[in-house]
Amino acid sequence: MSSTELNRCFRLRRRPVGRVTEADLEYVEEPVPTIGPGQALVRTLYLSVDPTNRIWMSEMRSYIAPVAIDAVMRGIGIGQVVASERDDFAVGAIVTGLTGYQAYAVIDDATDEMPYSVLPEPLPAPLSMFLGALGHTGITAYLGLEDIGRPQPGETVVVSAAAGAVGSIAGQIAKARGCRVVGLAGTDEKCAHVTGTLGFDACVNYKDADWREQLDAAVPDGVDVDFENVGGEIMDHVMNRLNLGARVVVCGMISQYEASSGDNAWGGQLSIGQLIMRRASMKGFVVLDHADRFPEAIGALAGLLAEGRLHTDETIVDGIEHARDCLNRLFDGTNQGKLLLRVADAELPVPTTEAAAATA
């Protein structure tokens, strides 16, 4: 690390309404933090861009406190330890945690909102996958289906935001379990990818005027599992097609994340009564609550990858200075699969298996 290098970062200056602007999230350059006893310095390599980032910027009631005004924007990343004053994070180790939207982060148990973890060595897959299919998004898809959706062979599973980071994995897991899987996406090109590459049985473009009729035709036997990422009118229509004993996995409500802050920001669903009529269940979950299950999930996902039953999509943008634009892309629907920022290259070699190097 050069003595003249700066910590490039984004600080939250105000709570955004709608798209995030420069006045909301400001790009700044600051001195690289220094570390003391019990700390380690991490150089961010990849930064995950997730819909939940938008929630953290607001005052919506959430599972974690809002990002404080003037604080570095919260975000999940992968980095390499470049200086250390602790035994459990050696220099050169590849780690993942809440690095934030910044080029350098400090590991400090006293202030970290989520513990950092060291990735396995050698890496069994390309580094970026540990923020996607083998990271928190893939784990979200796995645990949501495993614990709440519980899809059985022959059942019909509907996945909204089917071309997205979580939806694309959830649908493929359901297919691997012998289900009929129907997705919803926002363009004809995405729908073609969802059926042609990801292997879904059908996909509906929710921007078509007759999307409701198309969805009804795609689920002639009703819906047994709804893996919900969007909310709003899409979720309402799917709930009106639920079968007896159906399960609704509430993973995300991206249609409502850009609303103004406050208790009413989430709006409301019109078809909740169908839970009664169809004796269905609905449960929300947050993947951070299940850290003890991560090895199980990663093992299952890695197995599907090794068998060629799991396709992964990544949209990687170079340069942390593009973080604000990338966050807005999530709500424009212009990315496919997992959206990542490549912040820097590793300073020290990163051991990988031959299989991981071949797919990098």
UniProtKB/TrEMBL annotation:
Gene3D superfamilies: Medium-chain alcohol dehydrogenases, catalytic domain, NAD(P)-binding Rossmann-like Domain. Its EC number is 1.-.-.-. InterPro entries: ADH-like_C, ADH_N_2, ER, GroES-like_sf, MDR_fam, NAD(P)-bd_dom_sf. The keyword Transferase does not apply. Keywords: Oxidoreductase. GO terms for molecular function: oxidoreductase activity, acting on the CH-CH group of donors, NAD or NADP as acceptor. It comes from the Bacteria. Residues 22-341 form the Enoyl reductase (ER) domain. The keyword Oxidoreductase applies. This is NADP-dependent oxidoreductase YfmJ. It comes from Paraconexibacter sp. AEG42_29.
